[in-house]
Amino acid sequence: MRRATVTIAGGGLRGQRTTVTNDRGQFVLTSLPAGHYALVASKAGWVSAYYGSKHPGHPAYGGQSLTLEAAQHLADISLHMLHGGSITGIVLDPFTRPAQSVRVDLLEVHMTSGERRLLPVAGIAGDTTDDRGVYRLYGVPPGKYVVAASFNDVNWAAGNVHRLAPDVLHAVLGATAGVPNAMSSSVGSTNPPAGSEPTVNYVPVYYPGTVEAADAVEIVVGASEERAGIDLPLQLASAV
Predict the structure, then answer these.
(1) How far apart are alpha carbons 89 and 111 in whole angstroms?
(2) Are 139 and 45 in contact, with CB atoms under 8 Å apart?
(3) Least reliable range by pLDDT among 41-45, 52-56, 160-164
(4) DSSP string across 203-230
């Protein structure tokens, strides 16, 4: 694995030390004091490999698995890297049109004091949908995950977008019928009184399209597998 970043931490080091593999995948770390260390190799698009760990992308139990004695020379250290899997799909707005600039994150289930919690996957950056509503999460280790989408447009974040009742909408359309370029001005001047119409906002959505984290469906990703068609429909909910 050429140009992979190898990092060692722990022992008597202050902070960590980093090097890069050569074209043959070899690396050298010198002048290390005796101690217990954690060693990890990483590269974009690949699952980080932790020395001593049996689970790709996860550190060894206890965090430190490499023991180095004073003046010891270790030459048989190997780290086996796995090409990361990926999850891709389309985010749609409530009218089933592609939604642009929507944040998509990869989460995994953790049990804390008997409570099910969804936490971000370490080392996996979220993505933002493009003009086609498409997102792609890559470098994913094998495992089970939850995909979540959230719309963070500042115009919606203010929470003052009104859901017009049918009679109000019909009144606006009737007032602007046959009047060129009058729609925007009429809509702007027909804002309902405060409290008379509910305000709405986009809420986080979990695959396959639920707003309840407890109802999210986990997606299984195998080694180097690409899971396509993981689409998410955005939803509007009352805002307060």
Answers:
(1) 28
(2) yes
(3) 160-164
(4) E-EETTTBS-GGGPPPEEE-TT-EE---
Interatomic CA distance for residues 98 and 89, integer angstroms: 11
Q: What's the distance, Cα to Cα, between the start and end of the chain in Å?
A: 53
227/88 Cα distance (integer angstroms): 6
Find tokens 């996860």 and name the residue.
Answer: 58
Is the Cβ–Cβ distance between 234 and 104 less than 8 Å?
no
Lowest mean pLDDT among 26-40, 63-77, 92-106, 158-172: 158-172
pLDDT score of 161:
64
Threshold 0.90, pTM exceeds = no
Q: Which residues contact 216 (CB under 8 A, 6 or more apart)?
A: 118, 146, 148, 206, 207, 210
d(CA 23, CA 39): 20
